[in-house]
Request: fold
Amino acid sequence: MQTLDVKISIPETHVLISVDEYNDLKERELTGKYYTIKDLVNLTGKSESWLYDNLLNNPYRRKDIRKFTHYPKGKGDRWLFKATGLREYLENEFLEILRR
Reply:
């Protein structure tokens, strides 16, 4: 077996971290943050009306999103979504939502 010793210079403006540490940092970035409907539109590329019809007011989906969603309770109140829960849900379910 041949081996090759390589030296790579990393600029002072960069750091080298493990994949696990990177994933942990990405997860912590969303912890404690909340998304609005406009954020959901930006994340999915779908219109508000499409999201209301296919996700937010869909009885099948509504039970799934309940754990990370604040439903408006009246005028002046708005939809809010826990960022971590919403991102995970979209990552796992969005293609299925599109198929229906």
